[in-house]
Amino acid sequence: MAVLVVYKGRPALAVEKGDRLELTLPDGARVKVRPKDVLWLHPGPASLELNPPEGEEEAAWELLQGQVVDLKDLAELVYGAYTPETAYGAYLLAQRGERFLLEGERVRARTREEVEALLEARRKREEQERRFQEGVRRLREGVPAPEDRSLIQEVEAMALGERGESRVLRALGLPETPEAAHGLLLRLGVWQRQNPHPRRLGLILVPPELPLPPLPQEKRVDLTHLPAYAIDDEESQDPDDAVYAERVPEGFQLWVHVADVAALVEPFSPLDQEAMRRGANLYLPEGTVPMLPQEATWVLGLGLKEVSPALTFRLKVSGEGEILEEEIVPSWVRVRRLSYREALGVEELAPLRDLALAFRRKRLAQGGLDLRLPEVKVRLEGQEVRIRPLEAYESRIWVQEAMHLAGYAAAHLALREGLPFPFATQEAPASRVEGEGLSAMWEQRKALKRAQLKAVPAPHRGLGLPLYAQVTSPLRRYLDLVAHQQLRAWLKGEKLLSQEELLQRVGAAEAMADLVREAERKSKLHWILVYLMEKGYEGRGILVEKRGGQGIFLLPELGLTAQVALSKPLPLDAEVRLRFLEADLPRLEARFTLL
């Protein structure tokens, strides 16, 4: 004869089969289990057509408060009989847990205090649910009330990437994504122009607050008698390199002075660990978040004081751009700051120009690429979004080539001396694109392999150099700082970072630098779209790629690309007029049309 049991929360009929029970489940399936795996309800005979009758639950509870009884006793008290149906009904009452609680195979009647507490908790839950649903209704209608602040905060946390799910978005039938949350906040008017991308990527948005040690008392070569020029964009606030070149019988002598950051930031120091944690300066249209305390720029930035400490690269270079001799020394320098435009009018920089163009010719002859796509600087000045195209001054090339020469020389020195070093590398592009114009540069950039920083030397094919290292921005990039730490240790005969320690720094800094670059790119695009939404735009676009009936256009004045339907055939590099139509700020997308 089958007895009534509960197995995994469902009624079942059990028949003994040796030391096991064979169960028949409500869906007709049969399983064999151990006796201890079931809860016994009734000895039978029984069926699984169980419809418990109405009973006197409250009266039974009043009588039993605080007592422990069997399910059989509870069934008799509540229903007046012990049958399979009433036994299952008693089980359900205990399982529900309102007045009775199943404890093992017996049932405890809750005390009055427990029941009142449960009822109060239920009332609160129901009230919270009512308020939640009312708040969701108001959000759906676009009229949030002050009492909906907690719901808004949940959506904001989702938009900022600080939580992975949102009951509010789910209730509104929206995807649980940062973009959907951002869109809702815009529709509600809670957000207007907020840039969520740096916080969404988990980046630190305040400068470090760490003490800066004094500059060590050490021998430095006095180069204050030599001219030195820190040449950068007009609004640059962190000048960390300066240059000067002169003609000599062998060709040229080049001085590249770099802010001597490693003099104050030693490996494993708190400043070093903090810089590694950040990876690089974060340049946003809203402002710069430095990887080092702001004081480091004032103390070490070149040209901010009358005399500055530097690590100087003195290079003798042939007229064809070949490095003949290099020397690295800690120095004192007197630096004059210039904008790229101002540098064009300084006759003293003519040797630098000639040297830069010679070295550039050499790089390009060795397979280096010359990609000069339009760029813009985006700044938020008060509430005004400013977009300024970067002029293609030739002086930019002078400075870039001087930096390349310093990095080339540093990489050669590190290889020759066996220094563990962060080498910058890049594999050859997937293809070489012939032709001129922006469309050829665009296609060539698409074929580029990603540049990588490694602890072992390898060519940098994009630059056309057999070896290269970034060493001229230690105030702004952590691995440039690491390179300086290695060079200073080598100069002083001190212990170098090991290959393992260097690899750890390369991995940590590159991971963070990827996030920094993504935040900078998305933030720049965010504010360009805000500008377009507020001011509109009509201007030139240059066709750089065709995709079926669509064209990819570069908009030089905005530093933006747009995919636009082609109403008529156009050749590559054709210049047209485009008009802005609309933007999807959360998705960072803009639509334009051909005029």
UniProtKB/TrEMBL annotation:
Residues in RNB domain copies: 220-493
SMART domains: RNB
Pfam families: HTH_RNase_II, RNB
Entry protein name: RNB domain-containing ribonuclease
Organism listed in the record: Thermus brevis
